[in-house]
Amino acid sequence: MAPSSTGPQFDRVDRSHEQTRASYNRISRFYELIAGWSEKKARETGLARLAASEGEQVLEIGFGTGLALTALARAVGETGRVSGLDLSEAMVSLARTRLERAGLTGRVELTAGDALMLPYPDRTFDAVFMSFVLELFDTPEIPKVLNECQRVLRPGGRIGVVSISSSGPRTLVRRLYEWSHRRFPHVIDCRPIPVRTLVESAGFSPTTPETISMWGLRVEIVVADSCR
What we know:
Blueprint: H1 17-27, H2 31-36, H3 40-50, E1 57-61, H4 67-76, E2 81-86, H5 89-102, E3 108-112, E4 125-131, H6 141-152, E5 153-164, H7 172-183, H8 195-201, E6 210-214, E7 217-225
Parallel strand pairs: 1-2, 1-4, 2-3, 4-5
Antiparallel strand pairs: 5-7, 6-7
């Protein structure tokens, strides 16, 4: 995997979206055991920073088993609406079951699809949320995903991104993690990315990210307003 030839330098992703979809379909039943608990603090911090409120229309991209969807559905209340998009049909099924058990299906619409082409009209949402998703896309795809987010956001809308960050020193833990990603990309599929730089380059307002530690890695929580 070669780094990008222009812009910020970080690893490429060499698997197709179909391979990614098949992988998450396979691990869907065990995903929370693998990552749910370890991502909890970062995900909840991102949701708190996003601060979805009563009556808002919110989109979550890559919702997995639906842990954040339930929090967003409660936040927007009966007058709001949450849409969820995930590449994996198995994740859609698991998230739907979670929402049914929580009595929140009436507030949430789930779709199996690809964030490179969001199936929503322009200026639909007040906010977009992604948690450990943006770093799964190949380097040239990330600006396209963020541009799609810009398209579906209303004027003054905001984006919340939680991702493993390539900012800061390359510690031993980070070097080992990056080596594991290069050696076993179908197992360690998230790689560190320059989260704030990418978000700002897509036309979102400058922001000061909140940084937390996960397994000794830096995780950036970036919430920024659309400037379009």
